[in-house]
Amino acid sequence: MERSIDASTDAVWRVLTDLEGTAAVLSGVTRVERLAGVGYSIGTRWRETRTMLGREATEEMEVVGIVPGRSTTIAAESHGMRYRTELTLEPIDAGARTLLRMRFSGESESPSWIQRAAAKLTARLGMTATRKAMEQDLADIAAAAERA
C-alpha cells in the first residue's frame, strides 16, 4: 500500500522512528515498551500492543533493516508466524511531499495440516483486517507528519 504525504521525507522519517510517540500517532496502537536499543537502529526492539478485530494483541518487534531517511524493515515472530513490515519513503515534488509505501508479509514457519486448513478458512478475514490496519496506520502517519 502507499500514500502521498504533504510533508518532507525528513518529517515522515521522524514520525516513523519515534518509538516513544508511536501510541500517540497510530490510533490502533495502545502501548509501546522499548526493550533494547537507543534511538532507532538495527537491533532496536520494542513490545507493541495493538487493537485488531476488537481485541488487544501484544507483539515484540525488531528493526532488522534500515537506510536512514529512506527505508526500514521491522520483523516480528508470533505463534509460529514470521512477519515483516517494510516502509519506504520516496521524495516527490522536489522533496516537498513524500510517497510512503508499506509492505507487510506473514509466513508460517512449519504449518501443520490443521494450521493450513484454518488459514484457508480465515485468510479473507485476516487480509481484510490487515489491509484496514495498514490504511489506518498510513493515514495516521500522514496526519502526524503533515502537522509537524
Whole-number count of domains: 1
Query: What is the CATH superfamily label?
Result: START domain
The CATH class name reads Alpha Beta
Order of strands, main sheet, comes to: 1-7-6-5-4-3-2
Q: CATH architecture, please?
A: 2-Layer Sandwich
Number of DSSP E strands: 7
Q: What's the overall average pLDDT, rounded?
A: 89
Apparent shape: globular
Q: Main beta sheet, described?
A: 7 strands, antiparallel
**Within the CATH hierarchy, at the fold level, what is the topology?**
Alpha-D-Glucose-1,6-Bisphosphate, Chain A, domain 4
Question: Could you outline the blueprint of secondary structure elements for this entry?
Answer:
Elements: E1 2-5, H1 9-17, H2 22-25, E2 29-36, E3 45-52, E4 55-67, E5 71-78, E6 81-92, E7 97-108, H3 113-147
Antiparallel strand pairs: 1-7, 2-3, 3-4, 4-5, 5-6, 6-7
Organism: Agrococcus pavilionensis RW1
Protein name: Carbon monoxide dehydrogenase subunit G
Pfam family, one: Polyketide_cyc2
